[in-house]
Amino acid sequence: MTGKLIKYEMRSSIRMIGIIWVALLGMSLIFGFARPVLDAWMESNQFLRLLLQVVPSFIYFGVLVATIVLTIMIVVQRFYRGMLGDEGYMLHTLPVKTGQLIVSKAFSSTVVIIISGIVASASILSLLGADNLGAFFRALMDAFREAGQYPMIYLILAEAAVLAVISLVSDVYHIYAAMAVGQLSGKYRILTSIGAYLGIGTIITIITVTIGNWGIDSNLVRQLNHISSANEGLGIIRNTLLVLMALTLIKVVVLHIVTERILTKKLNLL
Length: 270
Known about the structure:
globular
């Protein structure tokens, strides 16, 4: 059933933002690969050349901002309307646990954020044009070949990618927990949710800094002072990433439990 919920959430989310993804990639491809041709064609007309550079840039920037804003809106709106709004009357009657509903929305929101990030990055790279894009990928491949003498680097990159994904999930759950607390206040939901978001963030920061001061920072400094080889340094980086992954996973679990308990025991639909 969770799989069906995820499929429904993904379909609804992509329906909302898919056209923006296509527009962003399409515009970047056109501007990036057509600009050299247009520059050569309009070489004799400086005003028209300038116009063709400035106007498309503003349009592209507007679509890029719209992608970011709409992605955030999807994360917030899909949870608020589905779990706390009118749709909640139907959704909470399904034969599934509240935790499954939360997981399905968190999963789909994280995927949407990742796809938006990939699309935005691809669009920015496309603006480089064919020649510059080729030079960029050649430099990237050279960097990977240089890193080949230290195989642990690939493992570190993989762990850093996993940490980035877990951090995104944590950010999504941070928003969900804040909205779950906010819905307890009735008509002041938005203000309470914002206050809860800031409050939860402050608590997390205090705990993180405290843990860091207790052991992580001092232990890391002690290890760095005794590095005798590159592999030892890479090993320290890898261990640090693993610790950060564990702490972030704990944060996700705690925020999930808080959100699930509130919505199970104290749900207040509009």
